[in-house]
Structures are given as structure tokens and as C-alpha cells.
Amino acid sequence: MKRNDFRLLHRLRVRWAEIDAQNIVFNGHYLTYFDTAMADYWRALALPYPEAMKPLDGDLYVKKASIEYHASARYDDLLEVGVRCARIGNSSMHFQLGIFRQDAHLISGELIYVFADPRTQTAKPVPTALREALQAFEAGQSMIEVRLGTWQTLGQDAQAIRRAVFIEEQGIPPEMEWDEADATSVHAVAYNRFGMPLATGRLLEHVPGVAKIGRMAALRTMRGGGVGRAVLEALMRAARERGYREAVLHAQTSAAAFYARSGFAPRGPQFEEVGIPHIEMVKTL
Fold first, then answer.
1. Which one-letter DSSP state was computed for residue 167?
2. Smallest Cα–Cα separation from 143: which of 223, 215, 42?
3. Do 260 and 180 share a domain, yes or no?
4. 153 Cβ contact partners less than 8 Å away, ≥ 6 residues apart
5. Tens digit of pLDDT for each residue in 117-153?
6. In 3-state terms, what secondary structure has residue 277?
């Protein structure tokens, strides 16, 4: 088993509380590492868990969990946990896992899930949509589609995401979230393979030659999974196609690093918008 056997590698650092009397990671904590990596695996599939299970009328239950120990991890080690779907049966899904410290293979594991009716916990066939999503991910395919359009075509889905993020999560008053610019903006919405909207943003003209990107939002469980970056890249492509030479945005300071990774640079002092610290960021297109 090698690191490059896995498309998904979840990184974590060993905490002091996870060390036992032998000064190595206590054996049971590796199952927690597996579970944490599985959450990242569903995020990589653009399937927010457990919401993505609801339209499938089922849920996942662990049937078997096994671990094989090859070497020990120690305090403050930086580990990578690899996850891959090795086989899909009629109602079961077999996942192989590996824990690595750089290229050193420390732990092997197996998790077997059964797709079942949550009311009776009786097994059901793995839905075709879920089976195809797992197979597509392991084949290296993209798990999301970003659509560009008007408020008339995408507004319902964009509005649902913005309401969940800005109004319900961040407490922004509804009257400060909706404005007239929505009607004239280019909107982007990222969808998973089940057609669930996951992230959104919009593009409008700031001044001649300069585009403004705004209302960027991704559902809480999907952050870090690439959906926000896909929306941002789609909006920047749309700006280039429309002849804009520069893009500007007002980033919440907590998200500034996200935009910096896409080449945006801060300009000017911090300021407050709707009671939240922001910084203006710009990028030449």
C-alpha cells in the first residue's frame, strides 16, 4: 500500500491527548483518524453528509472495521490518511484506508458500510446515483458542475445557499443581503452529481474595465472541498471573457487566505461590512 494508491489523502497532526503510556498513539485512536478521513472523503465527492443521504432514502451503517498495525505514530507527527472505495457490492461498500508519515506506511485498515433503511436498519441496494458517484471519483472525474446564469435561472438555488450562510449562520439581516444588483449580475452555482446546490457567487461591473466578485458562499459542510474555488474560477473566467482587466472583491478577513491562494492580493486597510471585518482584494486578469 502506497500514498499514491489514494486519490483522497486527509492530513492531520497527532495531538498530545492521543498518546498513551508508551509514548505512541493509542491504538483505538486510529479508528477516529479513519472516521475523520471518511468525512473528508464524502466532502471530496461533493456529498454533504448526512444531507446527501436524504434523497436516497437510506443511510450508511458500519458493518466491519479492521486495523493492521505496521509501525507507530508519535506526538506531533504529521500524518496522511488515505481513503479509497475498493469495491461496491449489492448493499455494501468496502473502503481501504492507509495511514502514512511521509512515505512510511504505518497503518492499514478496512471499513465496510452497508446502505440501509434508517427506519428498520435493514439492508437496501446501493442507489445507482451513489454507486456512480463513487466510481466517478475513483476514476479521477470531477464531482461538481458550475453553472453560470441569471438570477432568473439560478436565483432560487443561489438564494438558498446565501440564506443558509449569510442570514442563518452569520446573522446578517435579510434586508442587507438582497439588493438590486442580483437582477443584473452573472451568477454561478456549483452542483454535485445529485443536483444539490453547494456554493454560489456573483459577478458585476465595479467600474469600466474592473469586475466585482461578491456574495461568495459555500455550505458549511462543503468548505475545504473545492466547491468555493470552482465557483471563483468560473467567475474569473467569465470576467476575462467579458474583457475585464481586473477583479476586485471584499473578502471577509477570515476568508482572505482562500482568495490569496487564487492570486488575490489585499489592498487598503480593513473595514467593516454588515458588522463583519473585511479587506478589499484585487487580482489582474
1. I
2. 42
3. yes
4. none
5. 999 999 999 999 999 999 999 999 999 999 999 999 9
6. strand
